[in-house]
Fold each of these.
Amino acid sequence: MCELLGVTSSVATNLALSFSGFAMRGGKTGPHADGWGVSFYEGRFARTFLEPRPAYNSALREFLRQHPNPAALAIAHIRKMTRGRAAFENTHPFVRVLHNRHLVFAHNGTLPNVRERPLRSESAVGETDSEHAFCVILEALRAAYPASYPESARELGQTLFELGNEIGNDGTFNFLLADGQYLFARCGDHLSYIVRRAPFGHGTLADSDVKVNFADAMSGDPDESVAVVASEPLTSDEPWQKGLPGTLWVFRAGQLVTEILPPSARVAASAPPRIQTAH
Amino acid sequence: MCELLGVTSSVATNLALSFSGFAMRGGKTGPHADGWGVSFYEGRFARTFLEPRPAYNSALREFLRQHPNPAALAIAHIRKMTRGRAAFENTHPFVRVLHNRHLVFAHNGTLPNVRERPLRSESAVGETDSEHAFCVILEALRAAYPASYPESARELGQTLFELGNEIGNDGTFNFLLADGQYLFARCGDHLSYIVRRAPFGHGTLADSDVKVNFADAMSGDPDESVAVVASEPLTSDEPWQKGLPGTLWVFRAGQLVTEILPPSARVAASAPPRIQTAH
């Protein structure tokens, strides 16, 4: 299994703090020693750094910590092999171009049969089920939006919700997908998020018992907001929201903007299909 | 204008030496201060590092020099803006996936009208004529080889030769394109190469008057061979071969394997269409 981390904020900030506890799981406090990767968006371009080795003692990761590039949207992943060797081509996140922007994708879980699905124009460089699933999603998005990128993130979220259910039906499919503006997050079996707003308080990193002051990493903007999505809560003393299996969240600029719940949750709530869009 | 550098070798080696003099041109001895990038192949995957700032004093470039990853195929580029801002998305090399491998592309020159050419499935993330030209090439390769990657590098070289003439007819089109195994190099108006074979001698870097011992960077394999392609010779005292405009070279594992000369050169030599393939 692997772990996912996605961050979006209202102001470009140093995202290194969110990665600190996370990277510890890459071979030190967790078993995820087979690779790590991170994509930072600069506009529509995703700067991506990958290594097929543990994150916790990586010189490249340390370089990135010492030379932070402020960003407002990032996806990171640490990997424990389930499919494919430890190699660059099997390391998440995966990046492709769709309609003049990078799409970035990272997956947690296993999709044992997804590689049997035929592909037309997309193809995987590595051997993972994850990259193949990303290719399936890309082809579906090309078919659904042949002329240009969808303007409505809610519509795109609904398409990804349905694709997530369809592909995830045959395995475990927690994923993060970003397009430079929005962060789409699907909970297959476990995924949590938190939205932190200014003024920022303290939190205790779940992996190191270290107390951090979130205000240290922030820009000082009084309206600043940061949304963090992770496989497991990164802090032990903040109110993380756990996802119901099948849920798709859409985040933008440090806010949850849309939540699409699975049908089971809708029945449980005796409510009509629930698509919440924040004001 | 920009500068190109491509290196292929028979054994994975530290390619940093070839980049030393080259990177100096990125704002120190040359005017190419608007960005730099390098792609190192690991199998079919191209690890790519880019920065929209001068190469000569870059902390990331220094990190890569101190933490070399042996590679047998790499493309580098330093940029002086002609089209598009200094931004990640406008920095070469560009990377796309075609038939289960990364293709890497870098361009020197200007193609003033290429962005008027319509694209179907490919699209550019940035605003450069170069990335658009790469997209035109990718679509032509997808059309020519719809089912799988061409097995014959000579056939692919011929296709790229023709595409280079067609696209380059309307501007200046020096380019390097790599696929993980082969390095294709087109001379539009200036491009030079050299093949160095063991035992390696000395050379004087054209940009710094520093004498370097090429054997220092080599693996020690007695059959080792390295091919270097660059916009301008990197050393002042080695027999670099200058390309005739329109020439396409194909390199593999440190050797020139195919040279396709332009029709003008064939007429001049009163010879039939000349496609040389090394033994």
Amino acid sequence: MNTMDELLEDMIQDLYNAEKQLTKALPKMAKKCTNDDLKKALETHLKETEGQVEKLEQVCKDLGIKPTGKVCKAMQGLIEEGEEVLSDGKPSPIMDAGIIGAAQKVEHYEIAGYGTARTIADQLGHMKAAKNLEQILEQEKAADAKLNDIAMKSVNREAMQASGPAGRASLK
Amino acid sequence: MNTMDELLEDMIQDLYNAEKQLTKALPKMAKKCTNDDLKKALETHLKETEGQVEKLEQVCKDLGIKPTGKVCKAMQGLIEEGEEVLSDGKPSPIMDAGIIGAAQKVEHYEIAGYGTARTIADQLGHMKAAKNLEQILEQEKAADAKLNDIAMKSVNREAMQASGPAGRASLK
């Protein structure tokens, strides 16, 4: 790693691999949701993620680099954690709440990753790449906010109801 | 996973293990920094992290649960990614910029994790636990903002300077 351009290349390849992994993980999560809004949000984000993969390919073309070549270890761990949630019992509002927690961790990983890559691209004067990275960053932030919204408006309440007397008691 | 209390327990154990892992990783990152402000920020955050481990033990005591029993796979991946940065060449301002990127991903993981756990603790009426989790959340947000500040004020500029003619050209 000798230049900031090389660091940026490394970061973009990491994000590209992370998004590719996510396109495989999101359908599995959506399939287990009992809450319709959550299922729909994850399906919508899957389409967004597929668009982000294409946008990253464009960013790489503009920068004259290859998108492939890295395995994102952090996303592997995040997805493993999501799979732990999915394998722990049957689909339920409580599993939904766990899915939201896991998905928000994924979104935050990406928010940090795109934030740094966007700033470095901007500082290096790669304006088109910076703009594309900024657009993806805003999508990730919106996806995180949407998940928060679903947790607060319905899933957590449903999960309390499903938690037996102690959970229902805390709803008053 | 049958109740929201069990989900909360799982989330807190995940964060506890994540912080424990981080107390071992932060000194390695700090050791490789060439920028003094960055080194100091990571050392300060190590002390904060040690305090957070104790605070989580208190949270577990208040909730009548054990802090141990989980391995945080996501933090394992995040730390592996940080180690890739540290092993890629000699310490330099460019490595510093990579360290900041890796550390901000760690902070964002924790921001997502504590945000969810705090909300669920609050909704379950565990007010003391919710307050302690909120305090840790604010520390993580401040640590992320501090890293951003160091990147913008000094590290990225130093890294551009160290990137040869192309990097220096983008400084104008």
Amino acid sequence: LSNWPLVQIVHRPGVLDLAWGHPDPSLLPLEAVQRAARRALDDYGSETLQYGHPAGPGPLRAWLADHLGRLEGRAPDADEVLITAGISHGLDLLLHHIAAPGDTVLVESPTYHLAVRILRDQGLRLAPAVTDEHGLRVDALRETLAGLRRKGRRAKALYLVPTFNNPTGVSLPLERRQALVEVAAREKMLIVEDDVYRELAYDGPAPPSLWSLAPEGVVARLGSFAKTLAPGLRVGWLTGPRDIVAALRDGGLLDSGGGISHFAGAITAALCAAGDYEAHVSGLRAAYGARRDALHQALEAHLPAGSRVTRPGGGFFVWVRLPEAGPSAAEALAGAEALGVSYLPGERFYLDGQGARTLRLAFSLYAPEELREAARRLGQAWA
Amino acid sequence: LSNWPLVQIVHRPGVLDLAWGHPDPSLLPLEAVQRAARRALDDYGSETLQYGHPAGPGPLRAWLADHLGRLEGRAPDADEVLITAGISHGLDLLLHHIAAPGDTVLVESPTYHLAVRILRDQGLRLAPAVTDEHGLRVDALRETLAGLRRKGRRAKALYLVPTFNNPTGVSLPLERRQALVEVAAREKMLIVEDDVYRELAYDGPAPPSLWSLAPEGVVARLGSFAKTLAPGLRVGWLTGPRDIVAALRDGGLLDSGGGISHFAGAITAALCAAGDYEAHVSGLRAAYGARRDALHQALEAHLPAGSRVTRPGGGFFVWVRLPEAGPSAAEALAGAEALGVSYLPGERFYLDGQGARTLRLAFSLYAPEELREAARRLGQAWA
């Protein structure tokens, strides 16, 4: 019994496993959470343990409104923000509400592969939204939507990670963001913006969120403390249309159970109120930025000629496009693992079987010297 | 912003509000949780903050397996237990997996009204399972199932609270439990057992859970720390069929986010491992048992002649059946509130509009002397 694991990650001795998009445990804010837990239980007293407000802990929503207002120039009001048990839960809750099994949902391709699993578990009909090296192609989206209409279908929603994309690291340019919210508004298609990496920006601020650019009703933006504080807290949020926030807040799940991340959310609120959030995230930007640089530079040095390696402005991932000759990412995987390095082949992130010559490398879990060694081993694998 | 509420409950000054089935804040284990938070962050270190195991924190599942084994004579193994964000979340997750919109689910009537909302939000077709003063009638259930079959329908699941029922306080007798699991096994209908009140037993142990009586595959039992420790933790569990546990554990939601109550679950594990659980629950049994007695006795003294008042063996609720003459529960509510007492009219708990002459009174939130005063005011309301 005592061997049942506490955490999700499985370490493979000898393998630098760049498949995991997890924060480095040594960068988690253990002491700040210790202090915040004490402070929440002292300051909020038994309210920390009671049924929470269905929309989430008031102090956390208030801090978020203020924080997002300063960060993005648009502060959600009380009716526009809902605390979730992380983005995965927010996505699950949101899609259950706005769509039914058999409905069509567009997903940028490539995109976060486990979000695709959440949508598939709901019986949704997924269709790819085409991207290029700058992210979603809005011109292609218009064609896709017109094609659906000709078949008598429409897309209820579009899921994408427009900022420091998982897996590619790319951020959608401002003009495309503006064009995208216009298309979505006209088509009455809800944009589901997965915005988890926004604050892990290494070369200056991220582009504005789709939510901050769009008129009311067009974008539901999912945010999280998973990368900026700790994934185990399971505290995220949704900023979005008032009718959706109200329906989720007043629905059976949150009416019956109260706020779904009440305890962890109250502790997060205490941490943020103490000023520990900004200090911690500032440290993460420096640490992860250095890792990004280390991996990117070493890949440029070691990967075969003709490889293209993204240098993301933020987030956790470098995306590699291999030259046309030589083994594909999936074909090279076993050999790479024998050399002590691993990654996720790019096909995983496509809806439509593309990506054989791409791979995703997470630089979040390892120190710069380990990342340089990982790049060296990858170079060997393709040598 | 600073006024956004932290908790769900809304206090109405001057009203003894027996509508809320919430634990008394003064009975929440604030100090034990303080200690456990420190201990978890010390002992488990950064694992407390990493992505959690999708099935829930191993130490918590291991403690539960041992605890349930001693309590019920049947210990779930690792593949039979999943940590949820409370029963509401477990119910939502489970029904999304086993049923689709339009499917028929039976619900004992009366039953927990907010569970009904969770099921309705999923677009399920609900039908009542008939009860009498001892709980679900298995003979009537057989007829209901036969009736559905004649219409070409079948029930995917039956939801009930067989132990210290919400709202009636009644526990299903052993013979009916045995008959019920036999019927469900034969009909291949999953029993969804909401078992939240099991350990708050005031007159000796609760009857065995349906889960402990049934063969593999027949019962999914939902348990929780909401009443025994604190609802704000949002830590519950499911013990049930291996195929269901595996599908939920390996599904997109928990694969993407990791365990949904990881942080609170790790702290709960530390609290339980320290031995604080048994001590706390033993204190709750004494405190809530005294409240049950106080309210029950005072109601017998003050309610109009011909009223029937249940004396539940556990849980949070007394159920009142009013005499045929005089105002109904809904009709008397405004007058009762003017006198400074409130309750939930019984209709809320029925699927089929019955219950006009019943009401639910929660004795969990108030001290014995307040409950006696509440009963006096209720007597006045019907005088």
Amino acid sequence: MKKVFACLILITSFQVFGQTDSILVRKIFNEALSNGKSYENLEYLCKKIGGRLSGSPQSLAAVEYTKKLMESLKLDTVYLQPVMVPQWIRGKKEIARVLKSRKHGALNLRICALGNTIGTGEPGITAEVIEVKSIAELAQLGKEKINGKIVFFNRPLDPTKINTFQAYSGAVDQRSSGPSEAAKYGAIAVIVRSMTTRLDIYPHTGGARYLANVPKIPAVAVATIDAEMLSGLLKTEPDLKIFLKTSSEMLQDVLSYNVIGEIRGTEKPDEIIVVGGHLDSWDQGEGAHDDGAGCVQSIEVLRIIKSLGIKPKRTIRAVMFMNEENGLRGGTKYAEIAQNKKEVHIAGIESDAGGFSPRGFGIDGSDEKIAKITSWKSLLAPYGVYDIARGGGGADIGPLKSQGTTLIGLLPDSQRYFDYHHTSIDTFEQVNKRELELGGAAMTALAILISEKGL
Amino acid sequence: MKKVFACLILITSFQVFGQTDSILVRKIFNEALSNGKSYENLEYLCKKIGGRLSGSPQSLAAVEYTKKLMESLKLDTVYLQPVMVPQWIRGKKEIARVLKSRKHGALNLRICALGNTIGTGEPGITAEVIEVKSIAELAQLGKEKINGKIVFFNRPLDPTKINTFQAYSGAVDQRSSGPSEAAKYGAIAVIVRSMTTRLDIYPHTGGARYLANVPKIPAVAVATIDAEMLSGLLKTEPDLKIFLKTSSEMLQDVLSYNVIGEIRGTEKPDEIIVVGGHLDSWDQGEGAHDDGAGCVQSIEVLRIIKSLGIKPKRTIRAVMFMNEENGLRGGTKYAEIAQNKKEVHIAGIESDAGGFSPRGFGIDGSDEKIAKITSWKSLLAPYGVYDIARGGGGADIGPLKSQGTTLIGLLPDSQRYFDYHHTSIDTFEQVNKRELELGGAAMTALAILISEKGL
């Protein structure tokens, strides 16, 4: 093996911070780990309220609960921001049955309807199935081979991606765009392999987006183990048929709310730093990692600040955004109102990647802002938060981008996220107390650094 | 707040590696994540064999199983290394009952005997309890207050330590030395708060060490929730009594084995790099994180090397050490034989901190060796393995230190380790496939870098 070696001297300039900075960060982590409330708040959100799909009674109970939680912190303001949200309902337990396969006889697949999709109607539908690995493959097959059939998207997540969100991004087009793309070629329904790195028995739901001017067709996610089995069956029995019955539907928009609480800045109250997560979740589990964690961590940021008696120079505001999962109406409304009020948001920090050990922050902002945040790395690295990198943000804070806000996403360890994502097992039990607390502390530390030093 | 800022220019020299190095590391991780076998091997070890206390039938089944596993890899050598090990048995389910407290009446505490301890005898013992927070406090109280009583060690792990192993180190003297230290003052038994960062219902066992010339007294661990309750009761009822009954005992030493497999180096076969974990575990759970994970990862190192067709320059040897938990006889014997054979171990890499996402390696070695390994950081950091630091190694490879071996410990994320450590819930279900695989890949990458570049 011939090896090329080169030598490079990197001159890296680190700001070495005064003791006060590192002591302050230490105090924040100590408070989170010794007196943290995020874990018990998450337990309430998951166990007493549960899944919180936009427009559901649970989502309104979550609005009420988080508002009261923030009121108990004696913040400068706590208020609700009304926003109309779509109201999609899953309806009865979905059925997908392979009819009389030669290998197994009739058998049921573990499925669930994708968010925002229509149902099959009461009689259900029965059709042959055609398996594809990509949207591109639809065009190769053409209308002749797809018309009247159920399209089965079965491209797995790439296991070699170290960050599982990259694996997810590389496969999720099948779920979000697959239904309408298949409908263009006459498909009558879509079955999508669940978006998870594991082989498991849980169908992972998630949003699908219908294109205008294309017929809306029913679409479901199938558990990965069942996807493997179905794929195997289709190899020997390409003519097998599936009976599919779902009763999901989109109802009228209804009124809901973003929940907002803030600590006003002492020197520059008009410069706002938002910390947030989304309060809605899918209906199947308890919305623990997605995104109860982000909500209770954001409230924890304010609790820690109050508890340590910190008077931040700039305003720090926690927002529980509504409707990230199937509409993003909360995030969109929040940015619209901020624009109308001419509020200045210097940074948004979102936690929407699970309540796991924090490893860093991903930043969507100018080189200058990224360099400034990176200069604080030595303050955060002792807590395992070492990965400050370009790229990130969060769906809910995304609409603030056009206002020049630097968007920052908390980056937790990603390995376990898609084990639970959008399933019935995204429950409180899957969240580790210390991991959740470390994430909230990391957000607090960064929010305070931005508040005290500007951005 | 007055802040002191200083500016420092750090000149850091990085070796920039040839493509071949980074491609090789990439291949190792791809193989682990795409075709990994460590997870299914761990399932067998946990579910078909289970807890594997030294000397137990299960420990011998594990010897047999891992030997066969390595034989199936077509290594250059696979063999057993005989070693006599202590055989401690827990006996019947332990009982600790608070007798007629005024608050609750009689109630049972969730306890388990500490490893290596003697039992109470069939009648059990009944005595008053005195709570202490430290061994030092025993001397302050003196014989007068301790004699004839059960000493209750109740100092919690410090939650503010970011690395939970530091919190463990700061509390574990109560478990390992507490029994003999209390016996010096006439205590007749010891109850120790479980060594975990959580409040939970599981007693966490672990080894105690009796001092020579001090009476041996029974000692148990109590679940942290029950420790809190007992402490509360003692505040209002300092005279309450506890009935304690355990039947653990130390039997005669028995024959067991270290299990060894190796791929011989092509250029410097006499320079050995050991990768290892310990095959024995406590009896309560399945020894999944502690340390089935380290064993299957070490075997995975060899499997990946074979599977990729790598012919390492130096010898890479996997060792499943026996008896780490209650004697360290396997590690001691291994080093003794290495010494006798005049084998040269240039490095030992141990995985005994759980099958969680790898974050780095801790090194016990010279500045020069640490600098050399640190120079490879840019090859490992893309996989989340960024924390190359002084300090570490592992219990089993520890005895090689006097032979000049550089000792290296895999550092996984530590947040969840003490949730499961030494309990009935250290089971296969608590291990995440990808996290386990990433750890094995990180070990492989480092072993190969040392093999190809020397140390």
